[in-house]
Amino acid sequence: MNKSKNVPLKQLINQFLDYLEIERNCSPLTSRNYRHYLMRFYQFLKKRKSRSLPSPTSRGVSADRPTLADLNLENIRKFRIFLARVKTPQGRFLKKVTQAYHVIALRAFLRWLIKNDYRVVAPEKIELPKTESRSLKFLTAEQVTKLLNQPTISSIIGLRDKAILELLFSTGLRVSELVALNRDQINLKTRELGVIGKGGRARVVFLSKRAVSWLGRYLAARDDHYRPLFIRYSGKRDPSMSDEEMRLTARSVQRLIEKYRKKARIPIQVTPHVLRHSFATDLLFHGADLRSVQELLGHKNIATTQIYTHITNRRLRETHEKYHSGNQ
User: Fold this and answer.
1) Annotated catalytic residue 299
2) Mean confidence (pLDDT) of the chain
3) CATH code at 305?
4) Do 246 and 160 reside in the same domain of the chain?
5) 231 contacts 219 by C-beta, under 8 angstroms
6) Boundary residue ending a domain (74, 101, 125)
7) Residue 131 within a domain
8) Residue 24 and residue 89 share a domain
9) Strand partners of residue 114
10) Is 273 noted as a catalytic residue in this protein?
11) What is the tally of structural domains in the chain?
């Protein structure tokens, strides 16, 4: 079916964002990012279209509003040039990876349009900008130990932080998954819990004995009624506050990890995702297979997990060195 090219583009973008939220069950953060990237493209088209009109008097109320017809290769090419030249409020050019995110969002939008019988540019015709391969950051076993030993466990905050660090390294949870946990999700006896990860995919994660021990100590020290597994202890506090008002935020977790990273004098930046990488690296280095690590991390595709092949390659090299007769 050949649908009209005069459909307002903003209307289609909003429908696509609804699709991401309702049918694809994307996280609020993913939806927010896609909205940002696509609305930047929309505003670019709007300015470009406005400049091409003959005179202000000839401009109707919606004459400068982009339609599906404006979603063509020429305008996309100009948008790519715009992204390469635009500067942030800090005066820096957009990073290549940020430019790539805009293109990824645009290609996803085009795929959705095609799925809904709109005749538009094929997504494959829009190539992603080449980005520099980023080195995978993870902590050594010694660095992990140093980091995990930094919280002062004589206070409830220190106990909470110790439990957070142990849980992150024990499970490889994303920070969004960690802060969303409630007390009733934790089974200290079976040492496992269920989480809903990216795209609404459910998985079971397992707790180490050490993580269970520190979680138990932290929960035993709490005297509140709040459901969240991790709550804040700073700022305004009131017994009438809701669970969500007391829930620790992802940003707070990032800050506490950075605090302990500095205290441990670890020379690389440490984020919750670096601990996730460290979890995967630790498993692979001790003999776990890539498929199992994929399941534990909640990756949809094995290709995502293959960023860790440097570990398996190193382990294979050590096996070859140790056991091949030509090396004896």
Assistant:
1) yes
2) 87
3) 1.10.443.10
4) yes
5) no
6) 125
7) no
8) yes
9) none
10) yes
11) 2
Residue 3 identity (one-letter amino acid) = K
Residue 197 lies in a domain: yes
Residue 308 falls in the annotated catalytic set: yes
pLDDT of residue 88: 83
Residues 6 or more apart whose Cβ sits within 8 Å of residue 315 = 284, 285, 287
310 flagged as catalytic: no
Catalytic residue among 37, 118, 218, 308: 308
88 & 237 share domain: no
Beta bridge partners of 8: 67
Quick one: pLDDT at residue 198?
77
Query: What pLDDT, in 10s, does the model give residues 68-98?
Result: 999 999 999 999 999 999 888 888 898 888 8
Is 174 in the same domain as 298? Answer: yes
> Could you tell me the two tokens for 303?
């290709």
Residue 128 in 3-state DSSP? coil
Give catalytic status of residue 227 as yes or no. no
User: Are 19 and 101 within one domain?
Assistant: yes
223 — phi, psi (to 5°)? -125, 30
Co-location of 92 and 172 in the same domain = no
Q: How far is CA 28 from CA 35, 176, 191, 227, in A?
A: 10, 11, 29, 22
Which residue in the list 107, 174, 232, 247 is annotated as catalytic? 174
The stretch 7-31 carries a mean pLDDT of 89
Clarify whether residues 275 and 304 are in a common domain: yes
Is 226 a domain residue? yes
> Among this protein's residues, is 225 annotated catalytic?
no
How many Å apart are CA 289 and CA 291, to the nearest integer?
6
For residue 41, the enclosing domain spans 9-125
Question: Which entry of 111, 146, 198, 263 is annotated as an active-site residue?
Answer: 198
Q: Which two tokens stand for residue 268?
A: 């690389």
Same-domain status, 236 and 301: yes
Tell me, yes or no, whether 3 lies in a domain.
no
Identify the residue with better confidence: 300 or 269. 269
Which of the four pLDDT bands, split at 50, 70 and 90, describes residue 35? Answer: very high
Task: Quickly list DSSP for 212-266.
Answer: HHHHHHHHHH------BSSB--SS---TT--HHHHBPPHHHHHHHHHHHHHHHT-
Distance CA 162, CA 150 (A): 8
Q: Residue 163: enclosing H or E segment and its boundaries?
A: helix 156-171
What is the reported pTM? 0.65
